[in-house]
């Protein structure tokens, strides 16, 4: 393929990424760019060119040894919900913008520690970026069919121009805002898009090689299994290999937390902590899919090419060997996507660290104090943009001078081991408040020196001199000083060996110095915040134990220089409102100092923020004993406040319950009064009718016989009505006091339902209501038939009362379930209001919606029915109620 065509494709692809990033920034509030899937896919920036090409090379030459680099993150991902959530919470509260800020803040905003972490990250990541450039250069040469990978002149080297394009992309979207703690939605979205592409393209080449070039996985296995040394590719050769695996897993476990690009996407760019719930399973799934075909591509390449080509580029060479240039182009773009993601996010993270932890605190602070906020913002952005270009230039120089001699895998592991030196101060500091800045600095320096001696120095000497004498003999030919076999341990791979010794000494010095040299009061302040994450919200307001004199006006003046007058005034106004302080407060307290440092941290880093605020406050030194005493008093006060709050909440709850109980009693009393009024009315009505009819008969002796007979019938009907009402009241009173007993005998529920239906059929016929009874098998069991018949009649009468005339339907069904007989009565009436459902069976309850039009009856039917069912050790309920009807149900034990 033509060089120019390939460059055109690369520029066009970068243009698409620019467009995606631009749209994402414009739609930064949209759920399409703020969701757990975009967040999880951005974490796949872990899969760089090393993953895309290096894994295949390792699988071809060393078999399953490529897996540990992915097993570490898989093991780490379940811990994200605990560890990473804690890190995210602290970072958001403190406006952390980089891993250097995070570590330096833990140890009291130590400026030197922040600078040291930055230097370690730069030294670790520059070779890693060089690895990406190496992959681009070599794959570009393969695609364009060039004979040499690197041109003799920089201006003729296509890799140089690609590096410049990457720098422009990172600069444009990574340095738009001075506050580096703010989200870079455009970059994150484009990284997520690239993560999809590189996975899809890798799966496509995997399927092509496995199922088109070969006849499936079994065919590849059968052919590779007969080659020499196959067993070494599929097994671990003893205990030593197991240890190498363990150390590589530990190394990658640390890397998924501490690589600057991973910290950037997982912590700084996190919008919502709940996205972690999706990421803990989706990210491991992504890694699994990415590695699905690695071993088969490696074996297929081994079968096809043997040892004649670089195994790292089998994914490109296999389709080209078979004339499929388009598929090779997809692979190239997938690998290029992996490169872009890594380079852009890494340079963004490193440029922030360089500006906030090196350049600004060690040279530009005095200049910033004299400038206007607009100029300061421009200076900060220029520093970061220049930093990005310088990082990529240094990476390019490393690529030219060193990386040609090393594989992608080797360069990647060197970077991992260097970054791992941050692990003790990072992880132990999160859970042990004794760790001090002296301990962290000493541990990191010792660990890096050992890494330099055991890993970096040997390959540097060999790269420049071509001699391996130092590697083989050590210093003064002392065997125990051999860099790859320090103190006689010669069975580990160079990266595992360097990782083992560096972490051992790093951790030991960290622990020893923490016990020997206590941190100052600022370190103890932040240690308490980091360690006690459960009470972080409470601690962060009063975490800064501080004694001295400071004025709000002086602090505001500093804030104005970096935030602008309008923004700083708004921030201070919010602060005063939050803590209920007067807006004209003159003297600053510890909370305002802490708040001001956090405001500045996003723009210039925690170390510089501390220096600036320190310049305008008169602080008094506090002994550690005083710090501990203040913290202890603070904890006791917080505990007391918590206890008081709990008691207050309990009292509030009890008060609410008493109010509710009182309201219920008033309602019950009101219902009782209404019930008695109803009963009195119901008793009075038939008595009045009887009296009136009797008086008419007595007064009119010549009354017509037919009319007199009608009056006598009315007297009889009213007497029956009066009798029924009195019977209901007495019946309810007997049931309520438990003076009634059940006459249990074996009966058929089907026959009892038929009797109830017959009893109400005449009333139903008058309203033209259709009665439907399910024809089920006869179920016989012991119950008081008269009482159950009373329940059925009450429920049926009640349903008929509220069913519509002409088109009313009432159905009865029953069945036996789990030792109980269930009976259901359903109607299509007006339903029961939701607010009445909880009280419908109460003895004095009538619906609040019946104040104007009350249904006939005393309202005792359902209360009596409940008493009867419960006497049978059963239960009655409303199963469904809405505007289209109600279902009443009750169950009786089957015995």
Descriptive report:
The chain has 895 residues and is mostly helical. It has 4 domains: 3-21 and 44-411, Hydantoin permease (Orthogonal Bundle); 547-618, no CATH class; 627-737, Helix Hairpins; 745-893, Histidine kinase-like ATPase, C-terminal domain (Heat Shock Protein 90). It has 34 helices and 9 strands. It has a 5-stranded mixed beta sheet. Strands 1-2 form a two-stranded antiparallel sheet. α3 (49-62) crosses α15 (294-305), α8 packs across α17 (325-370) and α16 (314-321) packs antiparallel against α17 (325-370). The termini are far apart. Mean pLDDT is 81; it is low at 848-855.
Average pLDDT, to the nearest integer?
81
The end-to-end distance, rounded to whole angstroms, is 88 Å
Shape: elongated
Number of structurally distinct domains: 4
The low-confidence parts are 848-855
CATH-level-2 architecture of the largest domain: Orthogonal Bundle
Task: Give the amount of beta strand, in percent.
Answer: 5-15%
- Rg, Å, rounded: 41 Å
Q: In terms of structural class, how would the helical and strand content be classed?
A: mainly alpha
**CATH-assigned fold name of the largest domain:** Hydantoin permease
Number of strands: 9
């Amino acid at each position: 393929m033509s060089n120019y065509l390939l460059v055109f494709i690369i520029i066009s692809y970068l243009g698409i990424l620019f467009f995606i990033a631009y749209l994402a920034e414009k739609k930064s509030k949209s759920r399409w760019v703020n969701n757990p899937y975009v967040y999880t896919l951005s974490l796949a920036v872990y899969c760089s060119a090393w993953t895309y090409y290096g894994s295949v090379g390792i699988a071809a030459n060393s078999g399953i040894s490529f897996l540990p680099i992915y097993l570490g993150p898989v093991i780490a991902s379940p811990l994200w919900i605990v560890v990473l959530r804690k890190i995210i919470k602290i970072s958001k509260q403190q406006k952390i913008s980089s891993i250097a800020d995070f570590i330096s803040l833990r140890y009291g905003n130590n400026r030197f520690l922040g600078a040291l972490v930055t230097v370690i990250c730069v030294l670790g990541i520059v070779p890693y970026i060089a690895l990406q450039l190496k992959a681009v250069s070599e794959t570009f040469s393969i695609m364009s069919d060039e004979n040499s990978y690197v041109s003799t002149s920089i201006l003729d080297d296509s890799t140089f121009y690609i590096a410049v394009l990457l720098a422009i992309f990172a600069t444009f979207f990574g340095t738009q805002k001075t506050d580096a703690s703010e989200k870079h939605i455009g970059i994150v979205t484009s990284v997520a898009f690239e993560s999809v592409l590189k996975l899809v393209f890798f799966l496509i080449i995997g399927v092509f090689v496995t199922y088109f070039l070969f006849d499936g996985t079994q065919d590849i296995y059968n052919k590779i299994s007969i080659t020499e040394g196959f067993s070494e590719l599929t097994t671990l050769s003893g205990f030593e290999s197991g240890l190498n695996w363990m150390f590589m897993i530990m190394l990658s476990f640390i890397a998924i937390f501490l690589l600057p690009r991973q910290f950037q996407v997982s912590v700084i760019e996190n919008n919502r902590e709940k996205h972690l719930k999706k990421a803990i399973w989706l990210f491991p799934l992504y890694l699994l899919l990415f590695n699905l075909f690695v071993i088969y591509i490696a074996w297929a390449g081994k079968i096809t090419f043997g040892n004649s080509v670089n195994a790292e580029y089998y994914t490109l060479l296999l389709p080209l060997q078979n004339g499929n240039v388009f598929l090779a182009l997809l692979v190239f773009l997938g690998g290029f996507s992996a490169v872009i993601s890594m380079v852009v996010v890494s340079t963004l993270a490193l440029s922030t660290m360089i500006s906030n932890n090196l350049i600004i605190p060690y040279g530009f602070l005095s200049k910033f104090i004299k400038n206007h906020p607009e100029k300061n913002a421009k200076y900060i952005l220029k520093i970061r943009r220049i930093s990005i270009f310088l990082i990529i230039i240094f990476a390019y120089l490393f690529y030219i001078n060193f990386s040609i001699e090393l594989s992608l895998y080797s360069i990647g592991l060197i970077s991992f081991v260097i970054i791992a030196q941050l692990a003790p101060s990072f992880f132990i500091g999160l859970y042990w408040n004794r760790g001090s800045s002296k301990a962290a600095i000493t541990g990191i320096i010792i660990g890096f020196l050992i890494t330099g001696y055991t890993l970096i120095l040997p390959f540097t000497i060999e790269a420049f001199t071509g001699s391996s004498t130092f590697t083989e003999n050590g210093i003064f030919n002392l065997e125990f000083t051999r860099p790859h076999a320090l103190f006689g341990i010669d069975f580990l791979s160079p990266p595992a060996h360097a990782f083992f010794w560096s972490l051992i000494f790093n951790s030991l010095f960290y622990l020893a110095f923490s016990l020997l040299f206590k941190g100052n009061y600022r370190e103890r302040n932040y240690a308490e915040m980091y360690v006690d994450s459960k009470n972080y919200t409470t601690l962060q307001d009063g975490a800064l134990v501080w004694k001295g004199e400071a004025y709000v006006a002086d602090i505001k003046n500093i804030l104005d220089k970096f935030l602008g007058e309008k923004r700083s005034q708004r921030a201070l106004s919010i602060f005063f409102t939050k803590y209920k302080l007067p807006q004209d407060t003159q003297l600053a307290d510890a909370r305002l100092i802490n708040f001001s440092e956090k405001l500045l941290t996003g723009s210039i880093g925690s170390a510089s923020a501390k220096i600036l605020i320190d310049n305008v406050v008169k602080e008094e030194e506090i002994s550690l004993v005083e710090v501990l005493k203040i913290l202890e008093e603070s904890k006791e006060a917080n505990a007391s406040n918590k206890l008081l709050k709990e008691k207050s909440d309990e009292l509030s709850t009890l008060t609410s319950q008493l109010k509710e109980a009182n309201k219920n009693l008033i309602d019950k009393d009101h219902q009782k009064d209404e019930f008695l009024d109803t009963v009195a009315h119901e008793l009075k009505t038939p008595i009045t009718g009887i009296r009136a009819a009797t008086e008419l008969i007595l007064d009119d002796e010549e009354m017509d016989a037919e009319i007199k007979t009608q009056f006598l019938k009315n007297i009889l009907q009213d007497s029956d009505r009066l009798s029924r009402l009195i019977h209901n009241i007495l019946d309810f009173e007997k049931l309520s006091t438990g003076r009634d007993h059940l006459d249990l005998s074996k009966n058929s529920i089907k026959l009892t339902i038929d009797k109830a239906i017959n009893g109400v059929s005449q009333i139903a016929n008058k309203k033209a209501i259709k009665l439907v009874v399910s024809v089920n098998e006869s179920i016989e069991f012991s119950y008081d038939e008269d009482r159950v018949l009373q329940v059925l009649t009450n429920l049926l009468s009640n349903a008929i009362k509220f069913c519509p005339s002409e088109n009313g339907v009432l159905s009865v069904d029953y069945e036996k379930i789990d030792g109980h007989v269930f009976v259901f009565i359903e109607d299509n009436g007006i339903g029961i209001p939701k607010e009445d459902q909880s009280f419908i069976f109460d003895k004095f309850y009538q619906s609040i919606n019946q104040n104007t039009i009350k249904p006939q009856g005393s309202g005792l039917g359902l209360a009596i029915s409940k008493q009867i069912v419960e006497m049978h050790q059963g239960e009655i309920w409303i199963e469904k109620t809405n505007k289209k009807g109600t279902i009443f149900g009750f169950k009786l034990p089957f015995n």
